[in-house]
Amino acid sequence: MTIAYIGLGSNLAEPRSQVERALGELDALPQTRLMARSSLYRTAPVGYAAQPDFVNAVAAVETGLGAHELLHELQELEAAHERRRSFPDAPRTLDLDLLLFGDERIADGGLVVPHARMHQRAFVLAPLVEIAPDAVIPGRGAARDLLERCRDQDLERIVP
User: Fold this and answer.
1) Distance between the two ends of the chain, CA-based, in angstroms?
2) Which of 23, 32, 50, 92 is geometrically suited to a Cys-Cys bond with 63, CB 3.0 to 4.6 A?
3) How far apart are CA 111 and CA 98, in angstroms?
4) What percent of the chain shows pLDDT beyond 90?
5) Using one digit for the tens of pLDDT, what is the confidence trace for 82-101?
6) Cα–Cα distance for residue pair 67/136, rounded to 1 Å
7) Side-chain half-sphere of 11: how many Cα atoms within 13 Å?
């Protein structure tokens, strides 16, 4: 069994409900158990700015799936939430990112773990540190230290 961390985000079709529903659905994935979930956070969009704010969270799961299998299951959940990939950084009903998979470093077949930009994003680091204060991002360092470098990014905790 591997501990994996998953970033969740939504800014369309009742974002809070989308994220809450997806958190429950993570627990129903094959060979996977939801172990912890962060509070919900409201954040401004990154990249394409002409869209609504996001609701974000991070979940910790214990899984018997391999990293690529877990990614496939996450993509299936996105599809079930009618995720459309119209252009980079577009608004979305649900975004699920495999942030960390144990202490593995993976870069193949469309999967990069640790997530390529997670160390630069407060909306990932704050909820991660909330549920895993000692989290380390392989090749980058302690998540808590990386979060300090992102303090200039707007982030609002909305639901404990």
Assistant:
1) 28
2) 32
3) 9
4) 83
5) 867 665 666 889 999 999 99
6) 18
7) 17
Dihedral of CA atoms 143, 149, 154, 158 in degrees, nearest 10, equals: 30
Q: What is the pLDDT of residues 39-86, one digit of tens each?
A: 999 998 877 667 789 999 999 999 999 999 999 999 999 999 986 766
Q: Residue 67: enclosing H or E segment and its boundaries?
A: helix 67-80
Q: What is the pLDDT of residue 16?
A: 96
Which active-site residues does the annotation give?
A: 83, 92, 95, 97
Domain residue ranges in the chain: 2-159
Q: How far apart are CA 28 and CA 34, in angstroms?
A: 8
Highest CATH level, class, for 2-159: alpha beta
- Residue whose token pair is 């997530």: 115
pLDDT tens string 90-134: 688 999 999 999 999 999 978 999 999 999 999 999 999 999 999
Query: Are the C-beta atoms of residues 40 and 81 closer than 8 Å to each other?
Result: no
